[in-house]
Amino acid sequence: MPPHKLTVLQVLPALEGGGVERGVLEVAEGLVAAGHRSLVVSGGGRMVAELTNCGSEHFEKALGTKSPLTLRHVLWLRKLVIDQRVDVVDIHSRMPGWVTWLAWKSLPAARRPAFISTLHGLHSTGYYSSVMCRGEHVIAVSETVRDYVRNNYSFVPEDRLHLIHRGIDGHEYPRGFQPENAWKSAFFQQFPATRNQPLLTLAGRITRLKGHEDLLRLLARLRDRGIAAHGLIAGGTDPRKAAYADEIMAMAAKLNLSDCVTFTGHRSDLKEIYAISSIVLSLSSTPESFGRTVAEALSIGTPVVGYRHGGVAEILAAQFPSGAVETGNLNALTETVGSILARTQRPIPGPNAFEKQTMLSKTLDVYQLVRRAS
């Protein structure tokens, strides 16, 4: 029997950028490529055009604000599900998840779509977070997330808990990739302090948990050992986190590192930045659910050094074990980074173990499974 053509609705707070958002876009693109209909509800953002250009339909509604007032959108979402004849709904975040779950529960059982939750993070446990495990089936994006569900939400049956690692496209991040000379020229003209420097890159939005302080401490330790390195912080600042970005800049000045650190702001050319980097770093103080930047950098062959926890530990174990260091251990971090920089020949990571196509195939299989069962 040929697979049923589905209408799938994914719901998340916004499409500004980030790993969760990138995963939603990839699943949406995979649905369209397979002949299904892809709908997304979000508060909008810079990635909406990319979503719609790939054939998905976008409905803008701010469901991510943590306020009881957000629940006023339940009736709107309920009507959308009915009018669009949604077969499967997949939630990706807690507040939008509650709006969606309440809309779904309000429907007569015979008219409810299948309800999926894709869990991307290790949220604080409790009633508010439990919505991410209330799906008829739950997708965990890493072994770490699956263990989190097992340990904290034992009401989720094992046969309804699916491990589907996020994946990255090896064709999009090919081994040995190098940017064009025109890109290099423009980048080094914009950021002249990075030219001819061993670059230690920390990619991602500037938030307190991402380890920027540890990057600065690492640079200071390397300098004290006479090891040249330049920190490259590639990520935008949430307006609500502007004070933290100021703290990082002040800390760099206090450590006499202002000339050794470059802030690029938001970038859409991370692949090129990975390629010119000597090492990509993952220094989050709390476990990442997956670690997309780690997988992307390793795929093109750039060494990654990261803290050994969460999804990052899983990726490093599969592709670059020597890059994993104990979380928060600055001595081990300095030794590992210093050792890699000192080598004439940089170590080459193993092949990509987390392919996007595998992720898409497994996700669409779950969508088909739950639709047949509903």
- CA-based gyration radius: 21 Å
| % residues in beta strands | 5-15%
| Low-pLDDT windows of residues | none
Quaternary structure state of the chains depicted: single chain
Count of the separate structural domains: 2
Structure notes:
With 374 residues, the chain is an alpha/beta fold. It folds into 2 domains: 180 residues, Rossmann fold (3-Layer(aba) Sandwich); 162 residues, 3-Layer(aba) Sandwich (Rossmann fold), CATH 3.40.50. Helices cover 39% and strands 15% of the residues. The protein is built from 13 helices and 13 strands. A 7-stranded parallel beta sheet has the order 3-2-1-4-5-6-7, sandwiched between helices. Strands 10-9-8-11-12-13 form a 6-stranded parallel beta sheet, with helices on both faces. Helix 3 crosses helix 4 and helix 7 crosses helix 12. The chain is elongated. The two termini are 17 Å apart.
Q: What are its keywords?
A:
Rossmann fold, alpha/beta, 13 helices, elongated
What does this entry show, briefly?
39% of the residues lie in helices and 15% in strands.
Q: Topology, pairings included?
A:
Blueprint: E1 7-11, H1 19-33, E2 37-42, H2 48-53, E3 57-60, H3 74-83, E4 88-91, H4 94-105, E5 114-119, E6 137-140, H5 143-152, E7 161-163, H6 181-190, E8 199-203, H7 212-224, E9 230-234, H8 242-254, E10 261-263, H9 270-276, E11 279-282, H10 292-300, E12 304-307, H11 310-319, E13 324-325, H12 330-342, H13 356-373
Parallel strand pairs: 1-2, 1-4, 2-3, 4-5, 5-6, 6-7, 8-9, 8-11, 9-10, 11-12, 12-13
Helix pairs in contact: 1-13, 3-4, 7-12, 10-11
